[in-house]
Amino acid sequence: MFPEVRNQNQRIIYDIVFNHFKRYKVEISSAIKTTFPFLEILRDRELISNDFFENCQEAVRNLVPVQKVMYSVLSEMEKVFNIEFLDALFSEVNMNEYPDLHTVHRNFE
């Protein structure tokens, strides 16, 4: 396959996955009931900064509902969306901690 065709196919797949992610942000944020381990995984994989991590933790300490904080995190991740984020989101640890993610994950398959 020629490189431009492969790149075009990759772009189409990326667009489909990205649009799917945008469509399911509410479901994803609703599935994440606690900040740990989700935020720590994002920070450890350098997908979010320490400052952003601390801001999210502070919001939760100030009684902002976790799901709203998670929606904000997902909105930020949307700006720099990549496959590494999806790998982190659907990691084994997160899938075990947040069983409701299984339904969303099946929609990505």
UniProtKB/TrEMBL annotation:
Family annotation (Pfam families): HSR (PF03172)
All copies of domain HSR, residue ranges: 1-109
This protein's GO CC annotations: nucleus
GO molecular function: DNA-binding transcription factor activity, RNA polymerase II-specific
Protein name in the entry: Nuclear autoantigen Sp-100
Native source species: Galemys pyrenaicus
Lineage: Eukaryota, Metazoa, Chordata, Craniata, Vertebrata
